[in-house]
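Supplementary Methods, section 5.1.

A reviewer requested that the exact input to the structure prediction be made available. We therefore reproduce it here, unchanged from the version used in the analyses.
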Amino acid sequence: MQWQFLKNRARSRGLRIVAALFVLTGLSAQGPAPLVKFRFEAAEQKTLPGNSSEKNKGHGCKGEIRAEDQIGDFAVVALFYQNACYTDANYSHKNYKAEYGTAVSSDGRQRFPAVRVFPPQSKAGKFLASNHVGYYRSAEQVAVYQLDAGMLNKAFTTSAAGALAGGFRKVEGFNMSRIDQPLTYVFIAASQNYSAYQKTGETEAARIFSDATFTVDKYRIGVKGKVFDTARNFNFGPETHQAIYGHSRSFFTTESADGITILWQDELSDDVYASRVSGDFSTHRQQKLAAISGHQLAAATADKSGNLYYVLIEKSKNSGAPSTRRVTAIKADINGKILKRTNLDASAKGLNITGFGDSYLCSFAYSNGRLGLILSRTMHRSNDGLHHQGAIAVVLDAATLAVVKNLGQTSGHSFGNYLTTDSAGKFLAIDLGDNYPRGVHLHRFDETGRESRLVYTFKTEHGTSARSPAGRSYPVYAAISGGGKTFYQWSNDNHTYSEIGGAHDMQDGIAVFFAGEPDAAGKSLNNARTGANHNDARNLGMVFVKRDFSSGDPVLSKGVDESGGFYSFGGTFTKQENKGILWLTRYTDKSSHNVSRVKTAALDGSRVLVIHEIWTGKSYSSTQLTLFHAPTGGVYKSVNLGPILQLGWHDDLIVKDGKVYAVSGNGVDDKIEIAVISVR
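The structure derived from this sequence is encoded token-by-token as follows.
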């Protein structure tokens, strides 16, 4: 009886201590407080012609701001280009509508100067030479925040360099000539060190969304070093050339015993760090790991004991003949001590690497003493005299880091890959190829072999002249010609009109997620709907297949079925088929709604959380959460968060203790941002 009383008393005291700690840290047991939101109140409106220019050596660079280019404390200024500051209608965009006023917090207690700017009303008549940027009048450095859907996100800072008369400072990076939609910016003195999040030491936190199904909390961790800026360093939408190839992963998130560990690389120094964050976000330890100058952190993972595994690949040279890249695999313990370091053979007989960089992708996973690797790269010269690009599947021994099995090419011209494990401990992967094969390619492999199956394929742009680059001539492709366009029976299309998401072993089969460009009927193989990087609205798609997908008809989902094909570079017709494709979104306007940056996380054997962003052709708009229910093949719940959770092109989600973690970087503040998503 006495013992039970003492235990209850100790437990009660312990709970009081825990409660006190939550008070001290500014967090509650229920999570952080909601994010402070703002609204914009306009006080005046004006169209700024853009006749002012910066101070420079070129013609017309007078370094003065005219009255007609000012509204409140904001101004628009033309920059130097080659030999002059151009403000005429032939070589600069003109007439920027602007509204100046105040950003007011929802409780009315906080008020800051703000401006809403609009795209230029007149585009350069010949070509854009001088870009226009924003200047702001202040006696001290000012932090500039973008206001979107009520939320403030730090975007720029003013600089004393290039300051003009009247106290106007340049807003570094604020290019008004490039905006394609109205944007609102808020100006706050940098000395205030303002944040709309709760501050707790080096951690900031806020609840950014909550409803009956989802809760999203965001934590911001200060780091020493220059992190990859997720929102700014690769901000290309579906219609851009850069989006064909995408971008490599920047943050590799793994589970640790007391929280999560994030591996990342300094953008300036090539140093590699492990940021270890406790489960309650009360502590953060940044640990420097072994790195090699001129090498890219290509992939990273961890085992159940917390040991870290990562691969460093020498970056491609900008000049000279392609040569074998150096590749190093490292195993480190929980404290960063090197346990094993191995140089991997990247010669033509090994991993076959002469090119690797920011548009290449490498996926890494641990299972039962083995490491699975999917690696895209440029290869040594082949018999045709060319350096081809493609991805391979490789198995390494986790103890020695030696290559146990090189399973060869997964896809030719592979522009994306994703890797996890299945219920039996084998490696499960998808990659996206533009040929050999053309589509989303599903794989299961270990050191004994590989099974593969094409699960989604897409349209192909054909030649618009009879004569191909190889010098051969081909007949007209009459079936898709018309409307003023004539196509011929050969192709060399690097476009995939798609992005991969993830693949997950569920209780009844394997769910594969991706983004594609279906027409109004949900079909993706109409070769006439080509000619640009982006031809139809991108939508979220999936297909559900049997675990034994390598033979027979593996498709379980009931969706769009279609058949078609394309003529190869050599003029051979290749048949294509899609079966059971489910489109989870139905966007039709490619100028306003496109799915991009698809991320997936299996919550259990029946539910998958899908995160995707919505983009215009070029610009980010918002982020969508979708809860997919595999047994019914449908969406259980979908909600738009607004523009508060922007993620990297391929950075993966992880699930720990039933919660989903999504990591991104903010280079303006040098912070790692961690979104924690709870699903009820």
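Residues 89 and 203 are 48 Å apart (CA to CA). These observations are discussed further in the main text.
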